[in-house]
Design brief:
The protein is of the alpha+beta class. It contains eleven helices and twelve strands. The protein folds into two domains: about 5-125, Aminopeptidase, CATH 3.40.630; about 135-300, Aminopeptidase. Strand 4 (about 70-75), helix 3 (about 90-105) and strand 5 (about 110-115) form a beta-alpha-beta unit.
């Protein structure tokens, strides 16, 4: 089967395809891909078995990542909690992956990584890269039933506390709201001892995804104390980023924002609230999300390094051998380099 690579930012078939595919997410959209390109220079490319001019029937989107620290990689997708291969059969997936591996070998990429949400069992030759938990809240029950499923002491009580405190609530995508959110983001990342995302990243997310993005801020006496950024696509909402001022955690600002979000999405008949991933060993975050009545499932990222690395090593050995021959062409070439590599 012939596999074609397309530019998902320019080929209008890609947006049409994800608009009708049942497993597509906001992370597949041209807006998200364009934000990655603008901020980090990651070049997106989609692989499909459909020839030009014909409606797409499958697709696997990746970004070409070049880093001095981590090397050249193909990732589907960076900064995305999950990115499902949009295929209808395992045979189609294997064919697309094989084509990606071939291109990766030709261009000397270090490895290919995919981040599926539902893929099981893993593809042949794949090795697990990272493991997380994904938490989702079913929004199809009545609002009252959803509230009753929340943890009584740790969630329901915090929502009521926030309401009693009279916390101010704002939502939108304005530069002023984005700045409030980013200041809280900096405070949170410092507390977690993690490098912050650049301000440009959030500006690009807002500008590229438009009305799919919403920022929500809770404030006390004019001081922002909690903020979240959500992404919407079809009938699914994704809680992508959250931040807060830890000095005001007892006021329930984060709980108020999440509950306001659920109330809003119920009004437009959303089906699911994706609370994002949690590190498998982050018990505090896992517990927090479980208390929202979320369903937890395993989320595994898969890498395909074996053939890519092996081919690269062999190429390097061949190049080294040729250099040795040019430098000292009399006598046999030592086997030591090959033995060490193997």
């Amino acid at each position: 089967m012939t596999i074609y690579s397309i530019d998902p930012l320019r080929d209008t078939r890609w947006a049409e395809f994800i608009g009708r595919h049942p497993r597509a997410s906001v992370f597949h959209t041209p807006g998200w891909l364009e934000a990655l390109r603008r901020t980090y220079g990651y070049v997106p490319v989609a692989y499909a078995s459909t020839p030009p001019g014909v409606e797409l029937t499958n697709g696997l989107v990746v970004c070409r990542v070049r880093s001095r620290l981590t090397g050249r990689r193909l990732v589907s997708l960076p900064f995305s909690d999950h990115c499902e291969p949009l295929v209808d059969s395992r045979d189609d997936l294997d064919i697309l992956l094989h084509s990606l591996e071939t291109d990766g070998t030709t261009d000397e990429w270090k490895y290919l990584e995919i981040r599926p949400r539902t893929l099981a069992p893993p593809p042949n030759d794949a090795t697990p890269a990272d493991a997380f938990y994904l938490h989702t809240v079913d929004l199809t029950p009545e609002l009252g039933d959803i509230f009753r499923r929340l943890h009584k002491d740790c969630t329901q009580r915090k929502i009521r506390r926030a309401e009693r405190e009279g916390l101010a609530y704002e939502e939108g995508r304005s530069p002023a709201l984005l700045e409030k959110f980013y200041r809280l983001q900096l405070r949170t990342r410092r507390r977690q001892q993690l490098p912050p995302h650049p301000r440009e990243w959030f500006h690009n997310v807002v500008n590229c995804l438009g009305d799919k993005v919403k920022i929500r801020i809770a404030s006390k006496d004019g001081r922002p104390i909690a903020g979240i950024l959500t992404l919407a696509f079809k009938d699914i909402l994704v809680y992508k980023y959250g931040c807060s001022d830890h000095r005001f955690h007892n006021l329930g600002g984060m709980h108020l924002l999440l509950w306001k979000t659920i109330q809003e999405r119920k009004r437009i008949n959303a089906r699911e609230f994706d609370l994002g991933r949690s590190d498998a060993d982050n018990q505090g975050l896992i517990t927090f999300k479980n208390r929202w009545g979320a369903t937890k499932c395993r989320l595994t990222y898969w890498r395909f390094p074996a053939r890519l690395i092996a081919t690269t090593i062999l190429r390097e050995l061949a190049n080294a051998a040729r250099e040795d021959v040019l430098i000292a062409y009399s006598g046999p070439i030592s086997d030591r380099t090959g033995q060490d590599a193997l």
